[in-house]
Design a protein that fits this description.
The protein is an alpha+beta fold and 215 residues long. The chain has eight helices and five strands, in the order βαββαβαβααααα. It has a five-stranded mixed sheet with strand order 2-3-1-4-5, sandwiched between helices. Helix 2 packs antiparallel against helix 8 and helix 4 packs antiparallel against helix 8. The longest helix is centred in the N-terminal third of the chain and has 18 residues. The two termini are 22 Å apart.
């Protein structure tokens, strides 16, 4: 049976404090596993220290998990970047609903191979759901998404961006941070906050598409 298989690894993990990095990585997977407990067929499970895999119920929840992980990292000021592969592929053994181990299938093999191959590429997001047009829409959207978020800096930007994620209105953000409205308005423009919410909305539409609409 085909399932939505999500794999991810930490980019440049060897360049970080290993103990702190793994602790934060565990916090990321624990957050998703608790929040999306009803949408995970097999929970996000750390496999090789700096990688995880899991099986998600559908495309909508899969994209929600990826975006939520990205925003969790920002909201918590974590110094890490994740690379993602989402595959709609075969799992030929029984699914372990408690931990994403002891399963085999062509989809898992393909996802693992793609994750390893993509380590030499700049793109952090790769989606393959067996529909070329849907893949194009979602992958191009994530390329735009990455071009925005990867320009944000940890110490300089994350606190402000976290406030924008909670309150899109720059006036509310300025009040919350006790900052000048004009300054926050300018930072909203330079950080491309409106573009970020625009591409999120595109992904929100794309994740709800039935495959036939992509043909």
């Amino acid at each position: 049976m085909k399932q939505f298989i999500l794999m991810s690894d930490i980019i440049g993990s060897s360049n970080h404090n290993q103990e702190l990095l793994i602790e934060r990585f565990k916090q990321c997977t624990s957050y998703i596993n608790k929040k999306y407990i009803d949408h995970l067929i097999s929970p996000l499970t750390i496999t090789l220290g700096d990688e995880f895999q899991g099986i998600i119920a559908n495309l909508k929840s899969s994209i929600d998990v990826i975006i939520d992980l990205e925003e969790f990292i920002i909201n918590n000021n974590f110094s890490l970047k994740l690379r993602y592969v989402l595959i709609y592929g075969e799992i030929e053994t029984n699914i372990n609903n408690h931990i994403a181990f002891e399963m085999l299938g062509k989809g898992l093999t393909k996802a693992r191979k793609l994750l390893n191959n993509n380590k030499s590429k700049e793109e952090r997001f790769y989606i393959d759901i067996d529909n070329a047009n849907c893949n194009t829409i979602i992958n191009n959207s994530f390329e735009i998404y990455q071009n925005i978020v990867d320009k944000w800096k940890l110490e300089k930007d994350y606190q402000l961006i976290s406030s924008f994620l909670k309150n899109y209105d720059y006036k509310i953000v300025a009040e919350h941070l006790n900052k000048n409205r004009s300054l926050i308005w300018k930072r909203e423009k330079t950080l491309n906050i409106s573009s970020y919410f625009a591409v999120k909305e595109i992904l929100n539409v794309a994740k709800n598409l039935n495959y036939e609409y992509c043909l």
